[in-house]
């Protein structure tokens, strides 16, 4: 055990997880690569949990942060803040929500917490619809709507949560159905559920479930849900903390795959917008955002430094069409990984869109989750010079692949080859 690891254990909670048998200290990064304290270089296919979205040490972002820090680092939302207003204007327009208002937070957890506050206040209801296998953060309220017991340490809650079918396409009672039948069955389940309860405040859903293993429903499910929700006056919250900013390649926001009946009432974001800086936020229709009748501010949300980073990062992402790059390079990568998966008895499915890809591992000859194999592949990939993540529903048996959106084709090929070798090593 390294000295730093020993010190970490002495002062950190037991539940603060670390990857790898020999935990890694990352000291610096550049582009799509990072280096550890021993000088080893790694291709980064996880980006600090989908947060380093553009590139490590992106000059445009580091310059913006440095220049802003040289002027003023902090003032709070009690004062006018030019970078915050400018970023809010851009996000409001990009969100697709009419008459949009934007409130900045410091994380996705806090963004979802704020969305729940808005929805329950607006609707005067503490009931929330959430998806099975979901994850929405680590605060008391966010944990209480998380449909993944590996990330939900308590059943105590300020909310009453009702879980809906549909977030996982290829497991569960409707997995055998075609896409249209699957959507119809999930809608029927939602209709039935609403017949047995008081009217909920909102449905919160990740268009692609992140911690749940990059699972998603067929396109159009949430549009079909929206027809039911609208009849009951129930709001739709789209959790875009992991799917936002073009990561799926096909769409800028995950909700757009389900946009037949318009945008969500509330949209939450975080992670990639700051490219590593602590930025989150909520976008909502003005009447929803303005429903609070008490004072509220954010001490650190909308910090001049983080807003400068967000502005520079968003500009780079749009000007260099990183959504298009995610679609092109991600499409090649997922096909390469599917070819590799077809040769492994441990691989049940390779799924995803753009640069948001999951490899689900099972015990050979069964559909049973194989978290031991996932842990072993994680270790083997690290030994080969590649960092990836893991997740999944009932068991952590899905490899999560989410590189910075500037990933090149040679880097995608290199990462795929390291993964192929890692999968071969755990047969």
Largest sheet: 7 strands, mixed
Helix-strand makeup class: alpha/beta
Overall residue-averaged pLDDT value: 95
Give the overall silhouette: globular
Quickly count the helices. Answer: 13
Q: Give me the strand/helix succession.
A: HEEEHHHEHEHEHEHEEEHHHEEHEEEH
Strand content: 15-25%
What strand line-up does the widest sheet have? 4-10-9-8-7-5-6
Q: If you compute it from the alpha carbons, what radius of gyration comes out, rounded to the nearest whole angstrom? A: 21 Å
**Unreliable parts:** none
Number of strands: 15
- N/C terminus separation: 28 Å
The helix content, as a percent range, equals: 25-40%
What does this structure look like?
There is one protein chain. By secondary structure, the protein is of the alpha/beta class. It is 37% helix and 16% strand. It contains 13 helices and 15 strands. The protein has helices spanning 3-11, 47-50, 59-71, 82-95, 108-123, 140-144, 179-194, 221-232, 286-289, 304-319, 322-341, 371-383, 409-425, and strands at 26-30, 33-36, 41-44, 100-105, 127-131, 160-164, 202-205, 235-239, 266-269, 280-285, 347-353, 356-361, 386-387, 389-391, 398-401. The strands form three sheets. It has a seven-stranded mixed beta sheet with strand order 4-10-9-8-7-5-6, with helices on both faces. Strand 5, helix 6 and strand 6 (160-164) form a beta-alpha-beta unit. Helix 3 packs antiparallel against helix 10 and helix 4 crosses helix 10. The two termini are 28 Å apart. The mean pLDDT is 95.
């Amino acid at each position: 055990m390294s000295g730093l690891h020993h010190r970490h254990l002495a002062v950190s909670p037991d539940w603060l997880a670390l990857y790898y048998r020999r935990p890694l200290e990352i000291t610096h990064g550049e582009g799509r690569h990072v280096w550890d304290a021993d000088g080893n270089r790694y291709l980064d296919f996880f980006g600090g949990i989908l947060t380093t979205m553009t590139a490590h040490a992106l000059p445009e972002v580091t310059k913006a942060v440095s220049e802003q820090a040289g002027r003023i680092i902090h003032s709070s939302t009690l004062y006018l803040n030019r970078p915050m207003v400018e970023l809010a204007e851009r996000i409001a327009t990009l969100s697709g929500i009419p008459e949009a208002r934007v409130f900045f937070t410091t994380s996705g957890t806090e963004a979802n917490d704020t969305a729940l506050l808005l929805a329950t206040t607006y609707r005067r209801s503490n009931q929330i619809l959430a998806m099975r296998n979901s994850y929405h953060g680590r605060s008391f309220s966010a944990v209480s709507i998380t449909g993944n017991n590996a990330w939900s340490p308590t059943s105590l809650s300020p909310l009453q949560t009702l879980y809906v079918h549909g977030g996982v396409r290829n497991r569960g009672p409707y997995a055998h159905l075609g896409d249209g039948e699957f959507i119809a069955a999930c809608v029927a389940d939602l209709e039935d559920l609403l017949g047995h309860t008081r009217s909920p405040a909102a449905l919160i859903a990740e268009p692609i479930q992140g911690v749940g293993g990059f699972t998603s429903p067929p396109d159009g499910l949430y549009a079909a849900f929206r027809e039911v929700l609208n009849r009951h006056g129930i709001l739709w919250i789209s959790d875009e903390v992991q799917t936002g900013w073009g990561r799926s390649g096909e769409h800028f926001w995950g909700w757009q795959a389900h946009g037949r009946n318009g945008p969500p009432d509330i949209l939450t974001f975080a992670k990639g917008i700051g490219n590593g800086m602590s930025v989150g936020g909520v976008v909502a229709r003005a009447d929803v955002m303005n429903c609070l009748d008490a004072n509220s501010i954010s001490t650190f949300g909308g910090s001049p430094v983080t807003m400068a980073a967000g502005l520079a990062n968003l500009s780079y992402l749009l000007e260099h069409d990183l959504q298009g790059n995610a679609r092109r390079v991600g499409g090649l990568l997922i096909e390469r990984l599917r070819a590799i998966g077809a040769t492994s008895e441990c691989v049940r499915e390779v799924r995803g869109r753009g640069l948001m890809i999951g490899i689900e591992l099972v015990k050979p000859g069964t559909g049973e989750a194989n978290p031991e194999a996932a842990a072993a592949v994680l270790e083997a990939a690290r030994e080969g010079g590649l960092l990836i993540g893991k997740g999944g529903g009932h068991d952590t048996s899905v490899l999560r692949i989410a590189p910075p959106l500037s990933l090149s084709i040679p880097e995608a090929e290199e990462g795929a080859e390291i993964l192929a070798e890692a999968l071969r090593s755990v047969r």
